[in-house]
């Protein structure tokens, strides 16, 4: 077993679960920040990473690093656990890493879309509701206590060019918050870790506004890009496409408002 437990956010033991593009980039950046990182991979990817390391190509250059790597069962509990997978793979990942989550472990799920925990930490009519579309069997809600989650939305645009190489030429940015939007010491600690690792991080006044901002952006831009082949710059810079985008925004906003959120847009 690879020991990953310490309980000290000044120099935490960190696990990154998922060796895709975002997982590789995050693990590499954290190591460049001076942190001890365990990278959880599956199958023959473990031996491949162990033998070849991971590579990150970003705005700061090309980096080649060798994280501790293993299957989930090879690791002990972590201080910070980053979950880096597609939303539909999260229940399986949560089952695999559940033994890593101690009472003190901070869990940071890096996912797109509306997260399963969205209604946790809220007051009023929406409090505690379950989103079956993203957690149909309640696996995530059962295995990952909401009190241990730091929510996030990320604008890390990363591609994996081969099995162990991630490439990005955009700034790495993350928005993080407690589920009740409180400013806590542990939240500040996670932000500090990311900032020291070269990932620009901020704490919004309302985390769910930031989540909806990205969801709305995706709802508008992804269909247009798929149909026209236009880039994001063209979607919003071309007068005709910008007008279509505005109409789509007008359709989406009532849904967002119904859930009490206010996305940022211009």
UniProtKB/TrEMBL annotation:
Catalyzed reactions per annotation: (R)-pantoate + NADP(+) = 2-dehydropantoate + NADPH + H(+)
Domain of life of the source: Bacteria
This enzyme's EC code(s): 1.1.1.169
All residue ranges annotated as the Ketopantoate reductase N-terminal domain in the record: 14-180
Domain Ketopantoate reductase C-terminal as annotated: residue spans: 207-261
Keywords, alphabetical: Pantothenate biosynthesis
Known pathway: Cofactor biosynthesis; (R)-pantothenate biosynthesis; (R)-pantoate from 3-methyl-2-oxobutanoate: step 2/2
GO BP, one annotated term: pantothenate biosynthetic process
Keyword Transmembrane helix: no
Database matches in InterPro entries: 6-PGluconate_DH-like_C_sf, 6PGD_dom2, KPA_reductase, KPR-Related, KPR_N, NAD(P)-bd_dom_sf
GO cellular component: cytoplasm
Top-rank EC class of the record's enzyme: oxidoreductase
Pfam families: ApbA, ApbA_C
GO molecular function, one term: 2-dehydropantoate 2-reductase activity
Name this polypeptide is given: 2-dehydropantoate 2-reductase
């Amino acid at each position: 077993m690879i020991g990953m437990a310490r309980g000290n956010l000044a120099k935490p033991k960190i696990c990154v679960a998922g060796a895709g593009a975002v997982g590789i980039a995050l693990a590499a950046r954290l190591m460049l920040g001076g942190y001890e990182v365990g990278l959880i991979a599956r199958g023959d990817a473990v031996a491949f990473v162990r033998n070849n390391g991971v590579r990150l190509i970003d705005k700061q250059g090309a980096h080649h690093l060798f994280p501790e790597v293993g299957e989930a069962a090879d690791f002990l509990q972590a201080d910070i656990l980053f979950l880096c997978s597609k939303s539909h793979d999260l229940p399986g990942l949560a089952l695999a890493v559940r033994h890593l989550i101690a009472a003190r472990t901070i869990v940071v799920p890096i996912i797109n879309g509306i997260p399963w925990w969205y209604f946790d930490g809220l007051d009023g009519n929406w409090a505690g509701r379950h989103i079956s579309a993203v957690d149909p069997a309640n696996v995530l809600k059962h295995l990952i206590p909401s009190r241990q989650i730091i929510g996030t939305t990320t604008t890390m645009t990363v591609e994996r060019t081969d099995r162990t190489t991630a490439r990005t030429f955009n700034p790495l940015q993350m928005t993080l918050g407690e589920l009740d939007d409180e400013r806590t010491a542990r939240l500040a600690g996670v932000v500090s870790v990311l900032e020291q690792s070269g990932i620009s991080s901020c704490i919004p006044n309302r985390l769910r506004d930031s989540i909806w901002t990205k969801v709305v952006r995706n709802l508008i831009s992804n269909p247009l890009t798929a149909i026209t082949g236009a880039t994001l710059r063209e979607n919003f810079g071309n007068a005709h496409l910008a007008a279509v985008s505005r109409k789509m925004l007008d359709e989406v906003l009532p849904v967002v408002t119904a859930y009490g959120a206010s996305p940022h847009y211009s």
